[in-house]
Amino acid sequence: MPQLFAFLFVLLCAVRGAASASAGFSTASPAARPCDGQSSCEDCLANVNCLWCDSNQTCTKYPLSYILPPSSVCPLAKAHWGVCWVNFEALVIAMAVLGGTIGLSITVCCCCCFCRRSSSGYDREESSITRRREEARQRQQERKAERMSRHDDIRKKYGLVPDSDHPYSKFENE
């Protein structure tokens, strides 16, 4: 929440600076332009410490002890700070919407990144399972070859292998 108000302050200062530069106003220091005695919104808001109230057309010092000016000083719908064409209420609503949109965007981006990472985790798990299956298949083939070798040795030992050079082989008619 403090970041939102800091962002609000920076944005207002930037808008105020752009508006005063385009209107040809020079920014005076607060000591040179007191808030009391200003008769127009533009003159009042040339000083960053001042707040213009439309309800009674007065320029007052911004109450720095509060984040938002209390209604006893000026209602939010009638208070202007930074620029004359946006009241404080609209400014707060716009900043809340902007902050919510940025927060939602960051949340969506984080969720998307998390989903990508978790799907890559599934890919890694799937490749690990495939690798284990391949290793098991190779071990099975090795055991099968070893078993066949032992069976062939036993067949040779007892003369059950059909060799042509074996002395006890059957004669075949050709």
TrEMBL record:
One BP term from GO: protein import into nucleus
Taxonomically, which superkingdom? Eukaryota
Q: Does the keyword Glycoprotein apply?
A: yes
Q: Which UniProt keywords apply?
A: Glycoprotein, Membrane, Signal, Transmembrane, Transmembrane helix
Instruction: Please state where this protein is localized.
Output: Membrane
Q: Could you list the residue ranges forming a coiled coil in this record?
A: none
Q: What is its main location?
A: membrane
Which InterPro entries does this entry report, sorted A to Z?
A: Plexin_repeat, PTTG1IP
Positions of the UniProt region annotated as Disordered: 126-174
Give the Basic and acidic residues compositional bias ranges: 126-156, 163-174
Recorded GO CC terms: cytoplasm; membrane; nucleus
Q: Does the keyword Membrane apply?
A: yes
Q: Where are the transmembrane segments?
A: 90-115
Q: Which residues form the signal peptide?
A: 1-20
**PANTHER family on file:** PITUITARY TUMOR-TRANSFORMING GENE 1 PROTEIN-INTERACTING PROTEIN-LIKE, PROTEIN CBG20567
Name of protein: Pituitary tumor-transforming gene 1 protein-interacting protein-like
Organism, by scientific name, is: Denticeps clupeoides (denticle herring)
User: Taxonomy-wise, where does this protein's organism fall, top ranks first?
Assistant: Eukaryota, Metazoa, Chordata, Craniata, Vertebrata
